[in-house]
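SEQUENCE AND FOLD
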Amino acid sequence: MKKLKVAVIGIGFWGKNHVRVFNELSETEVVAVCDMNPERAGAVAEKFGIKSYTNSQEMFEKEMIDAVTLCVWSTNLAEEAVKALKAGKHVFVEKPMASSTGEARKMIELASTKKLHLAVGFIERFNPAVQRFKKLIENGEIGSIVSAAGKRVSRWPERIGDVGVVKDTAIHDIDIMRYILGEDPIAVYANAGSLKHRRFEDYAQIMLTFSGGRTAFIEANWLTPYKTRKLIVTGSKAIISLDYITQEMSIETEGQTLTPREEWREPLKLELQHFAECILENKEPLVTGLDGLKALEISEAALKSAAKGGLVKLR
């Protein structure tokens, strides 16, 4: 079977995980890594027996590469994505995809023109618990959805320095709400601010309004002393809750509470394997560039709502 030749750009904490996963997958072969820090890139390259670069353009000129994943700072994501797409490489870009919706649209247009895959890193869609959750909803087992709530809180992540909590963490839940409810919200109201960190917001509460009166509530912060990642959906027949970290789920109905258990599987491995398969089999990714753009648009609307202290209509 043909192996996809991949490279990872940005070898921080998350980029190192990308290299590890690609090395473990049967569908891929890691060819090179690129990072502005030569020591960091060199250390990873030596560990996996591959080439290292500090300039992605040079890497594209010297290596035979089919696809890249981008784990650089948010302010550099669009620039690196454009370079890769112009070089004819399929691109997987970590959230929030770009610094602005304008940059995101240019990436989508370029990928379409070049007939290349552009996938966005919303890892929670590949969480096995979320996939089970989605099937229960589609099968009508919870009835009509009334509301959903996501909680994503933890201490300040030291790696972050170019975006606030909305575009770093809440954006995951914004994407999940679109995915679970099967449509885009029509309005957003948000409260956000900073208690400890001057440059960006470190807490946010976001309410998304959907058609038919359905609502989704998202709480995110970098202040809580312990890490929590949870989702609850209330329906007319049942309430389903899940823990993203443990992948445990509970289903509460009128007469019983069920806690189905399945083997824990690594979402990142499932996500990157899916990206590789989409290229090898020429099929559309589960999370497209348009999905990334939608989540970014809603994130920016949430920040606008918090700044003006009022509702922002999305359509």
Notes: The mean pLDDT is 95. The two ends are 46 Å apart (CA to CA). Residues 4-123+269-288 form a domain with the Rossmann fold fold (CATH 3.40.50.720). DSSP finds nine helices and 15 strands in the chain.
